[in-house]
Specification:
heterodimer, A: Immunoglobulin-like, seven-stranded mixed β-sheet, four-stranded antiparallel β-sheet, 0% helix, B: Immunoglobulin-like, five-stranded antiparallel β-sheet, 11 strands
Chain lengths: 112, 114
Protein backbone atom coordinates (compact mmCIF):
# COMPACT_ATOMS: atom_id res chain seq x y z
CA UNK A 1 0.00 0.00 0.00
CA UNK A 2 1.03 3.59 -0.50
CA UNK A 3 2.30 5.76 2.32
CA UNK A 4 3.46 9.33 2.60
CA UNK A 5 6.02 10.53 5.12
CA UNK A 6 6.58 14.12 6.03
CA UNK A 7 9.05 15.49 8.55
CA UNK A 8 9.67 17.09 10.90
CA UNK A 9 6.29 17.26 12.64
CA UNK A 10 7.07 20.57 14.33
CA UNK A 11 9.78 23.12 13.78
CA UNK A 12 10.70 26.39 15.45
CA UNK A 13 13.07 28.57 13.47
CA UNK A 14 14.43 32.11 13.87
CA UNK A 15 13.74 34.76 11.24
CA UNK A 16 16.37 34.68 8.52
CA UNK A 17 17.29 31.04 8.99
CA UNK A 18 17.08 28.44 6.18
CA UNK A 19 14.41 25.78 5.85
CA UNK A 20 14.21 22.30 4.45
CA UNK A 21 11.08 20.17 4.72
CA UNK A 22 11.06 16.73 3.19
CA UNK A 23 8.28 14.55 1.90
CA UNK A 24 8.57 11.03 0.54
CA UNK A 25 6.00 8.69 -0.92
CA UNK A 26 6.26 4.92 -0.93
CA UNK A 27 4.37 2.27 -2.83
CA UNK A 28 3.71 4.16 -6.04
CA UNK A 29 5.61 5.58 -8.99
CA UNK A 30 5.43 8.89 -10.85
CA UNK A 31 2.96 10.51 -8.46
CA UNK A 32 1.82 14.12 -8.66
CA UNK A 33 3.25 15.86 -5.58
CA UNK A 34 2.01 18.98 -3.83
CA UNK A 35 3.07 21.42 -1.12
CA UNK A 36 0.33 23.37 0.65
CA UNK A 37 0.42 25.90 3.45
CA UNK A 38 -2.41 26.41 5.89
CA UNK A 39 -2.58 29.40 8.22
CA UNK A 40 -4.36 28.82 11.54
CA UNK A 41 -8.09 28.37 10.96
CA UNK A 42 -7.75 28.97 7.25
CA UNK A 43 -7.87 27.06 3.99
CA UNK A 44 -5.17 25.34 1.98
CA UNK A 45 -2.91 27.49 -0.15
CA UNK A 46 -1.19 25.59 -2.95
CA UNK A 47 2.50 26.53 -3.01
CA UNK A 48 4.07 24.12 -5.50
CA UNK A 49 3.14 21.06 -7.45
CA UNK A 50 5.11 18.61 -9.54
CA UNK A 51 4.00 16.14 -12.15
CA UNK A 52 7.45 14.59 -12.63
CA UNK A 53 11.12 14.66 -11.62
CA UNK A 54 12.56 18.13 -12.02
CA UNK A 55 9.16 19.58 -13.02
CA UNK A 56 8.02 22.17 -10.50
CA UNK A 57 5.14 24.60 -10.89
CA UNK A 58 5.03 27.54 -8.52
CA UNK A 59 1.71 29.02 -7.54
CA UNK A 60 2.71 31.80 -5.19
CA UNK A 61 5.83 33.97 -5.72
CA UNK A 62 7.64 34.19 -2.41
CA UNK A 63 10.87 33.22 -0.72
CA UNK A 64 10.13 29.50 -0.85
CA UNK A 65 11.29 27.00 -3.44
CA UNK A 66 10.65 23.34 -4.13
CA UNK A 67 12.65 20.55 -5.69
CA UNK A 68 11.99 17.00 -6.74
CA UNK A 69 15.36 15.27 -6.91
CA UNK A 70 13.81 11.81 -7.08
CA UNK A 71 10.52 10.44 -8.31
CA UNK A 72 8.99 10.09 -4.84
CA UNK A 73 10.79 12.87 -2.98
CA UNK A 74 9.58 16.44 -2.72
CA UNK A 75 11.49 19.09 -0.78
CA UNK A 76 10.37 22.54 0.31
CA UNK A 77 13.16 25.02 1.01
CA UNK A 78 13.90 28.58 1.91
CA UNK A 79 17.19 30.43 2.18
CA UNK A 80 15.84 33.02 4.63
CA UNK A 81 12.63 32.56 6.54
CA UNK A 82 10.21 35.42 7.19
CA UNK A 83 7.72 35.77 10.05
CA UNK A 84 4.95 35.35 7.49
CA UNK A 85 6.24 31.86 6.65
CA UNK A 86 4.74 30.48 9.85
CA UNK A 87 2.00 27.95 9.28
CA UNK A 88 1.06 24.34 8.81
CA UNK A 89 2.79 22.83 5.78
CA UNK A 90 1.21 19.83 4.13
CA UNK A 91 2.61 17.54 1.47
CA UNK A 92 0.21 15.51 -0.64
CA UNK A 93 0.33 13.06 -3.50
CA UNK A 94 -2.08 11.71 -6.07
CA UNK A 95 -1.73 9.44 -9.06
CA UNK A 96 -3.62 11.96 -11.20
CA UNK A 97 -6.26 14.64 -10.76
CA UNK A 98 -9.01 12.05 -11.10
CA UNK A 99 -7.78 10.34 -7.96
CA UNK A 100 -7.94 11.42 -4.30
CA UNK A 101 -5.10 13.36 -2.76
CA UNK A 102 -3.36 11.75 0.18
CA UNK A 103 -1.86 14.09 2.72
CA UNK A 104 1.09 13.72 5.04
CA UNK A 105 0.73 14.52 8.72
CA UNK A 106 2.08 18.03 8.16
CA UNK A 107 4.78 20.22 9.69
CA UNK A 108 3.87 23.01 12.08
CA UNK A 109 6.41 25.76 11.45
CA UNK A 110 6.78 28.63 13.88
CA UNK A 111 9.06 31.54 13.07
CA UNK A 112 10.41 33.57 15.98
CA UNK B 1 -7.96 35.43 -7.25
CA UNK B 2 -9.63 32.48 -5.63
CA UNK B 3 -11.65 30.55 -8.17
CA UNK B 4 -13.38 28.14 -5.81
CA UNK B 5 -15.50 29.77 -3.15
CA UNK B 6 -16.93 27.90 -0.21
CA UNK B 7 -19.69 29.05 2.16
CA UNK B 8 -20.33 29.37 4.99
CA UNK B 9 -16.93 29.84 6.57
CA UNK B 10 -18.27 28.76 9.97
CA UNK B 11 -21.21 26.59 10.90
CA UNK B 12 -22.44 26.14 14.48
CA UNK B 13 -24.86 23.25 14.63
CA UNK B 14 -26.91 21.75 17.43
CA UNK B 15 -26.45 18.01 17.67
CA UNK B 16 -29.17 16.30 15.68
CA UNK B 17 -29.70 19.18 13.25
CA UNK B 18 -28.92 19.21 9.53
CA UNK B 19 -26.63 21.61 7.68
CA UNK B 20 -25.25 22.23 4.20
CA UNK B 21 -21.98 23.66 2.94
CA UNK B 22 -21.68 24.99 -0.59
CA UNK B 23 -18.84 25.18 -3.07
CA UNK B 24 -18.93 27.44 -6.15
CA UNK B 25 -16.46 27.78 -8.98
CA UNK B 26 -16.12 30.59 -11.49
CA UNK B 27 -15.09 28.07 -14.13
CA UNK B 28 -16.26 24.61 -15.13
CA UNK B 29 -14.71 21.83 -13.10
CA UNK B 30 -13.46 18.53 -14.38
CA UNK B 31 -14.29 16.96 -11.04
CA UNK B 32 -14.67 17.95 -7.43
CA UNK B 33 -13.46 16.27 -4.27
CA UNK B 34 -14.47 16.74 -0.65
CA UNK B 35 -12.16 16.42 2.33
CA UNK B 36 -12.57 16.54 6.09
CA UNK B 37 -9.89 17.87 8.42
CA UNK B 38 -10.26 17.17 12.12
CA UNK B 39 -8.73 19.74 14.51
CA UNK B 40 -4.96 19.27 14.57
CA UNK B 41 -5.04 16.75 11.74
CA UNK B 42 -4.58 16.64 8.00
CA UNK B 43 -7.29 16.60 5.32
CA UNK B 44 -8.78 13.20 4.62
CA UNK B 45 -10.51 12.36 1.38
CA UNK B 46 -14.26 11.82 1.59
CA UNK B 47 -15.57 11.54 -1.95
CA UNK B 48 -15.15 12.54 -5.58
CA UNK B 49 -17.86 13.70 -7.99
CA UNK B 50 -17.25 13.62 -11.72
CA UNK B 51 -20.51 13.61 -13.63
CA UNK B 52 -22.87 16.52 -14.14
CA UNK B 53 -25.76 16.31 -11.64
CA UNK B 54 -24.12 13.47 -9.74
CA UNK B 55 -25.35 12.66 -6.24
CA UNK B 56 -23.51 10.39 -3.84
CA UNK B 57 -24.31 9.38 -0.29
CA UNK B 58 -22.15 8.21 2.57
CA UNK B 59 -24.39 7.36 5.51
CA UNK B 60 -25.57 10.79 6.79
CA UNK B 61 -23.56 12.73 4.17
CA UNK B 62 -25.02 13.63 0.78
CA UNK B 63 -22.81 15.14 -1.92
CA UNK B 64 -24.10 16.82 -5.07
CA UNK B 65 -22.41 18.12 -8.22
CA UNK B 66 -24.28 20.77 -10.17
CA UNK B 67 -25.56 20.32 -13.70
CA UNK B 68 -23.11 22.91 -15.02
CA UNK B 69 -20.24 21.36 -13.02
CA UNK B 70 -19.56 24.70 -11.38
CA UNK B 71 -21.00 24.08 -7.93
CA UNK B 72 -21.27 21.37 -5.35
CA UNK B 73 -22.78 20.84 -1.93
CA UNK B 74 -22.34 18.65 1.11
CA UNK B 75 -25.40 18.05 3.27
CA UNK B 76 -25.11 16.38 6.66
CA UNK B 77 -28.22 15.12 8.42
CA UNK B 78 -28.62 14.49 12.14
CA UNK B 79 -25.26 16.05 12.99
CA UNK B 80 -23.16 14.23 15.58
CA UNK B 81 -20.20 15.42 17.64
CA UNK B 82 -17.97 13.25 15.44
CA UNK B 83 -18.81 15.58 12.52
CA UNK B 84 -16.69 18.35 14.07
CA UNK B 85 -13.95 19.57 11.76
CA UNK B 86 -13.37 21.60 8.64
CA UNK B 87 -14.83 20.43 5.35
CA UNK B 88 -13.03 21.41 2.16
CA UNK B 89 -14.01 21.10 -1.46
CA UNK B 90 -11.26 20.83 -4.06
CA UNK B 91 -11.95 21.33 -7.73
CA UNK B 92 -9.91 20.39 -10.75
CA UNK B 93 -10.29 23.23 -13.21
CA UNK B 94 -10.89 22.57 -16.90
CA UNK B 95 -8.36 25.13 -18.08
CA UNK B 96 -5.19 24.35 -19.99
CA UNK B 97 -2.96 26.08 -17.46
CA UNK B 98 -4.51 24.19 -14.55
CA UNK B 99 -3.51 20.68 -15.49
CA UNK B 100 -2.37 18.66 -12.52
CA UNK B 101 -3.54 20.95 -9.75
CA UNK B 102 -6.46 21.25 -7.38
CA UNK B 103 -8.14 24.47 -6.29
CA UNK B 104 -9.28 24.24 -2.67
CA UNK B 105 -12.13 26.19 -1.18
CA UNK B 106 -11.45 28.04 2.08
CA UNK B 107 -13.34 25.40 4.04
CA UNK B 108 -16.36 25.32 6.34
CA UNK B 109 -15.42 24.96 10.00
CA UNK B 110 -18.14 22.99 11.77
CA UNK B 111 -18.72 23.19 15.51
CA UNK B 112 -21.31 20.90 17.05
CA UNK B 113 -23.07 21.76 20.28
CA UNK B 114 -24.29 18.74 22.28
Amino acid sequence: SQTIHQWPATLVQPVGSPLSLECTVEGTSNPNLYWYRQAAGRGLQLLFYSVGIGQISSEVPQNLSASRPQDRQFILSSKKLLLSDSGFYLCAWTQDTNQPQHFGDGTRLSIL
Amino acid sequence: GQQVMQIPQYQHVQEGEDFTTYCNSSTTLSNIQWYKQRPGGHPVFLIQLVKSGEVKKQKRLTFQFGEAKKNSSLHITATQTTDVGTYFCAGVLMTTDSWGKFQFGAGTQVVVTP
